[in-house]
Amino acid sequence: MRTKRIKIFDTTLRDGEQCPGASMHLSEKMEVARQLARLKVDVIEAGFPVISDGDFSAVQTIAQEIKGPTIAGLARCVSRDIEAAGRAVSPAGSKGRIHVFLATSKIHREFKLGKAEDEIIRLAVKGVKQAKSFVDDVEFSPEDGSRTEPEFLVKVCQAVVDAGATTVNIPDTVGWAVPAEFGSLIGHLHAEVPEFRSGKAIISVHCHNDLGLAVANSLAAVEAGARQVECTVNGIGERAGNAALEEIVMALKTRSDAFGGFKTGIKTHEIVKSSRLVSRMSGLTVQRSKAIVGENAFAHSSGIHQDGILKKRETYEIVDPQEVGWGQTELPLTKHSGRAAVAARLRHLGFSMSEAEVTSIFSRFKEIGDKKKFVYDDDLAALVDGQRTDVIETWSLDYVHVTTGIHAIPTATVRLKRTHASQNQDLEILEDAGVGDGPVDAALKAIDRLTKTNGTLKDYLLRSVSQGKDAMGEVVVKVDFGKGEFITGRGASTDIIVASAKAYLNAVNRKLATSNQKTKIARKRKPKRH
Ligand code: KIV
Ligand code: ZN
Questions:
Q1: d(CA 108, ligand 1 centre) in Å
Q2: Closest of 181, 188, 101 to residue 151, by C-alpha
Q3: What's the whole-model pTM score?
Q4: Between the CA of residue 178 and those of 105, 192, 223, 235, 238, what are the distances in Å?
Q5: Which pLDDT score, from 0 to 100, does residue 2 have?
């Protein structure tokens, strides 16, 4: 039986978050999960619970709070992984899914696992059965599926379906596949496993983009019988990323004539909002010419095209930009806008906030409103991002002053406030001044001395949040504090030096929060002396 519905399995919070420098804190993951629910994805893969306490609690909190989509947790075919995933997704009840995986390709069997084919099948079946003891909804992935011998892959699929897997996901783990070949592999599995034909179990695909073919491969798989596609917003993910959700969804919708009328349940007008949110939360900017969600995706510069569009949009536009959420910005707010208007706009933008949070955003809004004529939706979103963080602010910026210019030596004076993390009490105010290659360098060096950190700036990105000369600037930094692990920090202000200092301090606070957390866990785990 062939259904016309394609399930969208979003793995932005798991595979997407595996992208270096994209790691998100709990409040950021929650923001993304809420938006994914509004986008109406079928499944949210919320994390890999056994990997860290942070991942575990993200999956558990998402399973508790997000209603609508199925919530999945990833696990290797290892008992403690499956147990952790089972506990983490249990608040979702019947909407909880465990996604177990085990490599099946010859190269992984021989060099990574050192296991023979029958041992792989035994472990896969054991993993699925254990997962079944926690939830009904179990997905199995033969990792590196696209490079697995097709006949062995059929045996694996049949064995895990017999053990109770209701979804079998075929990953193109290293982005090796090409569309015709991948499509015929999926067609072969569909033909050989009766449960895929009867609909008792479905084939899913999970394509990586190493050769830029992730979306094409996923679509070829749909034509050959796959009924779930795994993807991420903006295509973020390991290495070159995963198949981009917005491209899969819009290709299926726009060219439904070519794809046999398949439908997804995605609310397409939420796509641009989702893209921007994921970009802000992950710190990964979207390429300007990216299909569907890039700034230039609907910008027509040639006169001939503009003329054609004015006469009939479809001459040069195959997707109506409004259909994916472009051009939905409301009238900008001004300093005269009241609290109720700001609260309503925050709700419209999808932020669910407590009264206290709205009050605090409103006072920041008034400060910005004094500096700029219009406060746009993106300005407001940047304010919320800067304000809402579950990172305890050990250090906050109290004052910054810079002198710079063509013949001047860039100098910065910085004053920071240190707050006692748990007691929310101001401990001290410290001030320092220094010089640097430029005003940002001078300010960051002063922050390093005051906070006794020594970060290396690996990436610095400044963008105008909205329009006009008085626009807010948003800075995203990636900082290496000496462990080779990048920490992302964000800050926004109408003054780009202040935005830079705030972004850097945000990274310092994250680093401190992470090391405090690790110390607490290490203390908790220290064996008792007898
Ligand atoms: O790329 C991959 O193989 C994966 C699996 C865990 C599904 O991400
Ligand atoms: Zn993957």
A1: 13
A2: 188
A3: 0.82
A4: 17, 21, 14, 18, 19
A5: 52
